[in-house]
């Protein structure tokens, strides 16, 4: 009637073609132990990070290895390309957006050199996490194998 009983659903999409893995299988304790939030990780098979949600770029690291997006429902999504890639000091990353920019699902955000990252960091696993879990009532991982860019991976019911 007034949509008061309708649950708000948000989907987090695959930011590129790759293999979905559980967050606890990531070779970084901060991500694996969900210290920064919960979500999933993906092993990229492409070199362009696409937006997994529609929203606003609220943070893009100077090194270009990670960024944060806030949805219209105030869900904050962090995408971190590879593990310990901050140590690469921006080498191999090209930012395609700026902080404050509005983006839609599938928009190219960061171009990266996949081979360089494979050679110079512990892992190319890319965590995609919700950093403000207090906004989440429930989440369900929809895929656990190979996905195409833009496929729905995580279903979130907002609190």
TrEMBL record:
Gene3D superfamilies: Glucose Permease (Domain IIA)
PTS EIIA type-1 domain boundaries: 28-132
UniProt name for this protein: PTS system, glucose subfamily, IIA subunit
Record keywords: Kinase, Phosphotransferase system, Sugar transport, Transferase, Transport
UniProt KW RNA-binding keyword: no
Family matches, as InterPro entries: Dup_hybrid_motif, PTS_EIIA_1_perm, PTS_EIIA_component
SUPFAM superfamilies from the UniProt entry: Duplicated hybrid motif (SSF51261)
GO cellular component: cytoplasm
